[in-house]
């Protein structure tokens, strides 16, 4: 799938997709985590953090890969670390926040 437009128009659309898809991925994964929790699913902190991190990595990078904006197969170790760290932080915060709702 190609992003429509030529030159600067296409470049602007591509640059705008990153933040937009990031917001959608973050909210979407948070909602799915909340729904799983509401249905009774509980996990240990490491498992919940890993699942949330993996979910948001796929939700954020999947569409950009399909659109041809990026290709994770070509990323260096530094690229992977710079992508993983904020998603891992998101996973920790979501899991910690969800667990806080269980406390009296």
Give the SSE map.
Blueprint: H1 7-38, H2 45-66, H3 77-100
Helix pairs in contact: 1-2, 2-3
What can you tell me about this protein's structure?
This protein is mainly α and 104 residues long. It has one domain. It is built from 3 helices and no strands. The chain is elongated, with a radius of gyration of 16 Å.
- Tell me the count of domains: 1
Which bin fits the share of residues in helices?
over 70%
Q: Count up the helices.
A: 3
How does the helix and strand content classify structurally?
Answer: mainly alpha
Kindly report the oligomeric state of this protein. single chain
Total beta strand runs = 0
- Give start-end ranges of low-pLDDT stretches: none
Summarize the helix and strand pattern as letters: HHH
Shape: elongated
* Main sheet: strands, sense, barrel: none
Report how far apart the termini are.
Answer: 49 Å
- Report the C-alpha radius of gyration, rounded: 16 Å
- Overall average pLDDT: 91
Strand content: under 5%
